Amino acid sequence: MTSHKTTEISTTLRDEILLGQYRPGERLPSERDLSARFCTNRGAVREAIKILEQLGIADVQPGGVRVLPLEEATLGVLSHLMDLDETLEPYLIANVLEVFGSMLSLSARAAINKATPEQISDLKKTIEKLRAKGVMTEANWVLLAKQFVTINQNLVVRLIMNGLKTQFLGRLVPSQDRPEFDRGTVLRKLLDPLAIAIETNNGDAAAISITEHFDYLRETYLDLNQIQ
């Protein structure tokens, strides 16, 4: 079980690394120094370092623990990074839209080509929900994505999409400080080709339609946040 001290140490060091207080290749303080800093034993420090290793931001080497480049980190650090630096949030959410769209496009192509008539019927019902005025919500997109990846049965794609959903779905919910997508006519019309692709069991057409939809979402999001 992770102790309170282990959580405190790993969280503090994680944030310091993500904020650049320790640069890639730089050595973290020794176990003895960290034990003194956090008023705890070395066991708690070792457990905290394991958590940093699992996040892909630290590497235990002979002679000490080295900080790894952010590009080598796992998906788990991104939400923490956005919490620490709000200026990065629009860029990273735009990246997430791009990756999520690519994964969904991949799943849709495979799923539609192997779907049963019953599964096609369920997909059509979800598309109709998305095309209906006022209900183009993240929940229905999550349902559609779940249907595609379930039919496709690609575990790796499913795990990646689960990670994206867990890390970022809530960040797309409008707030006072975040511009809102206009879920209007343009987005609904972009779903027309997808509905036809599902009706005709055309996986390639479905993949193209989803890619175009998420490209539009990404470009719109960047425009709303005035990112050049």
Describe this structure in words.
- By secondary structure, the chain is mainly alpha-helical.
- It folds into 2 domains: 4-73, Winged helix-like DNA-binding domain superfamily/Winged helix DNA-binding domain (Arc Repressor Mutant, subunit A, Orthogonal Bundle), CATH 1.10.10; 77-224, GntR ligand-binding domain-like (Four Helix Bundle (Hemerythrin (Met), subunit A)).
- Helices cover 66% and strands 4% of the residues.
- The protein has a two-stranded antiparallel sheet.
- The radius of gyration is 22 Å and the shape is elongated.
- The termini are far apart.
Topology:
Elements: H1 4-18, H2 31-38, H3 42-55, E1 58-61, E2 64-67, H4 78-84, H5 89-114, H6 117-131, H7 138-152, H8 155-168, H9 185-190, H10 192-199, H11 203-224
Antiparallel strand pairs: 1-2
Give the number of DSSP strands.
2
Termini separation comes to 46 Å
Major beta sheet, strand line-up:
1-2
CATH architecture of the largest domain: Up-down Bundle
Structural class: mainly alpha
Taken as a percent bin, the fraction of beta residues is under 5%
Q: What share of the residues lie within helices?
A: 55-70%
Indicate the multimeric state. Answer: single chain
Main pleated-sheet profile = 2 strands, antiparallel
CATH class of the largest domain: Mainly Alpha
Basic shape: elongated
How large is the radius of gyration? 22 Å
- At the fourth level of CATH, the homologous superfamily of the largest domain is GntR ligand-binding domain-like
Tally of distinct domains = 2
Contiguous runs where pLDDT drops below 50 for at least 5 residues: 174-179
Task: Please work out how many helical segments DSSP would assign.
Answer: 11
Q: What integer is the average pLDDT? A: 84
N-to-C series of helices and strands: HHHEEHHHHHHHH
Task: Fill in the CATH topology of the largest domain.
Answer: Four Helix Bundle (Hemerythrin (Met), subunit A)
